[in-house]
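Structure tokens
________________
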Amino acid sequence: MNSYIREDKLEHHQEYCNNHDAVRIVLPEPGTMLGFKNYNRSMSHPFILYADFESFINTIDTCQPDPSMSYTNKYQHHVPLSFCYYIKCFADKVYSPKLVTFTAQSEDNDAAHKFIDMLEEDINQIFIHSFKFVQSNYILGFRRR
């Protein structure tokens, strides 16, 4: 739902929407680049997490789908084998960057559950040791100046 302060903007919107689908696609001109210049509207976050998984891809034996009905043809199953994640705080003095890696030693090691367990432990440590400092320097996601 949109609101418009100026009537001419509303009329332009209505003219476009009455003649087109609900989605408007606007692409940059060929050979040009998009840029972001309103950095004052961006939000600072005290922590960021980068994560990556590596998986075995097993084929799936499946039955013949019924073309008279909607279906998804499943032919692969991804089994997580290893992962790594990197936690970065806006200030290294508050929380030192941390790189975590894990590789399953057998099929019995569930890498996905291990990822959740290890990440949850790190988040709890961040909350216990670093959150008071972060909370005092951030309000509603915006960094105090």
Summary: The chain has two domains: 7-37, 40-143. Helices lie at 7-19, 111-137. The first strand starts at residue 47 and ends at 59.
